[in-house]
């Protein structure tokens, strides 16, 4: 199933609303963050299908490497705060949803920026 532009815009409006309702009622707020990240990642992954295969692979690899550098830096920072400041426990499921949503959103936005740069370069080419 393809995620069309109308469906993408609809989901981009629904996820913040469901996040707000989740905060209001105290349940399922972090699931909305994960859904938001999945929506952005899936939509921009589909945009990569318009490019040639090698360029799409290059963009995915670049996005994944930047994402992993971000994850390692965040883990080092979180470990430092956890060890040195002795922070209390946090709910595990909410934390997993929040981290997964943030990582998927970041990956989607990295793919978006690389896709836009590649499409600008392709549009400036003179084809004979």
Describe the structure.
82% of the residues lie in helices and 0% in strands. It is an all-alpha fold. 18% of the residues are buried. The mean pLDDT is 83.
Topology diagram in text:
Elements (H helix, E strand, L loop, with lengths): L4 H21 L3 H19 L5 H33 L6 H32 L5
Helix pairs in contact: 1-2, 2-4, 3-4
Search tags:
single chain; mainly alpha; flat; 4 helices; 0% strand; 128 residues
The fraction of residues in strands falls at under 5%
Cα-based radius of gyration, to the nearest Å: 18 Å
Distance between the termini: 36 Å
Helix fraction bin: over 70%
Mean pLDDT: 83
Gross geometry: flat
Please report the total strand number as a whole number.
0
Profile the largest sheet.
none
Secondary-structure class: mainly alpha
Summed up:
The chain is mainly alpha-helical and 128 residues long. The chain has helices at 5-25, 29-47, 53-85, 92-123. 18% of the residues are buried.
């Amino acid at each position: 199933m393809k995620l069309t532009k109308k469906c993408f815009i609809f989901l981009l409006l629904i996820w913040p609303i469901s996040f707000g309702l989740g905060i209001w009622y105290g349940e399922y707020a972090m699931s909305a963050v994960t859904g938001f990240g999945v929506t952005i990642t899936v939509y921009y992954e589909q945009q990569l299908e318009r490019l040639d295969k090698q360029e799409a692979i290059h963009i995915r690899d670049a996005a994944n490497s930047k994402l992993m550098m971000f994850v390692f830096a965040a883990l080092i920072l979180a470990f430092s705060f956890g060890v040195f400041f002795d922070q209390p426990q946090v709910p595990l499921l909410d934390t997993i949803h929040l981290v997964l949503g943030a990582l998927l959103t970041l990956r989607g936005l990295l793919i978006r920026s690389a896709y836009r740069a590649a499409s600008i370069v392709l549009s400036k080419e003179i084809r004979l």
